[in-house]
Amino acid sequence: MSELASTGIEATRRRLTEKQADTVDRLTVAAVDVLSREGYSGTTIRLVAAAAGVGTATAYTYFSSKEHLISEVFWRRLVANPPVQIEDADPATRVAAVLRQVSMLVADEPALAGAVSNALLGDDPDVKHLRVRIGMEIRHRLTEALGSKDPERLAMLELLYSGAMLQGGMGLLSYAEVADLLEACVRRVLADPSATG
Predict the structure, then answer these.
(1) Are 12 and 72 in contact (CB under 8 A)?
(2) Burial (CB count <10 Å: 0-12, 13-18, 19+), residue 193
(3) 3-state secondary structure at position 89
(4) Region for 140 from its dihedrals, namely left if φ exceeds 0, alpha if ψ lies in -120 to 50, beta otherwise
(5) For position 138, which CATH number holds?
(6) Same domain as 161, residue 80
(7) Distant-in-sequence contacts of 8-14, Cβ < 8 A, 24+ apart
(8) Which of 16, 40, 56, 128 would be a feasible disulfide site paired with 20, CB 3.0-4.6 Å?
């Protein structure tokens, strides 16, 4: 059984048997390989399926579009990386560490990073579902790091993160620059009591 299947990560469309989970794992691995060779515009479900050794129809059983498949790759990367735990640190340090970890998930893979930005902006219902799951996971991590459920500050932090990631996805900033800028912004937002009103 694959590592992802054994940790309970499954495709977002349905529950999977061990064999189905293996197929989905192969498709997600192949998607990264195809993206690195073909770029986002050249990547198709057909090419990914061929690289994974499965039929195109089988791939479409699990993924409604290439955007869905690429979003799934990011979702899996996110949940496969346990939240950063920094004991005895102030909230700004903990939040900055969370955002650095999440923003660097695809930093070393420029083709995947750009593809994730494009994919997550898609209107495919399966992508929308994953956007919600990804957002909820990031919100949970931010809430834990913040140490409170401060809706206004959480909204600010989420806006900072999504805006910074869009800048990275468009190639306006490197992901290292995104992580550094996020840390500086987090320290300002969490240090300034007037930032929430």
Answers:
(1) yes
(2) exposed
(3) coil
(4) alpha
(5) 1.10.357.10
(6) yes
(7) 9/76, 9/79, 9/80, 11/62, 11/63, 11/72, 12/72, 12/75, 12/126, 12/129, 12/130, 12/133, 13/62, 13/63, 13/64, 13/126
(8) 16
The tens digit of pLDDT for each residue in 56-91 reads 999 999 999 999 999 999 999 999 999 888 878 899
Q: What percent of the chain has pLDDT over 90?
A: 58
**CB within 8 A of 154, min separation 6: which ones?**
139, 142, 143, 146
34 and 121, same domain (yes or no)? no
Summarize pLDDT for 130-186 with one digit per residue, the tens: 999 999 999 999 999 998 878 999 999 999 998 888 888 888 888 888 889 999 999
Residue 197, in any domain of the structure: no
Amino acid, res. 40: Y
pLDDT value at 8 more than 70: no
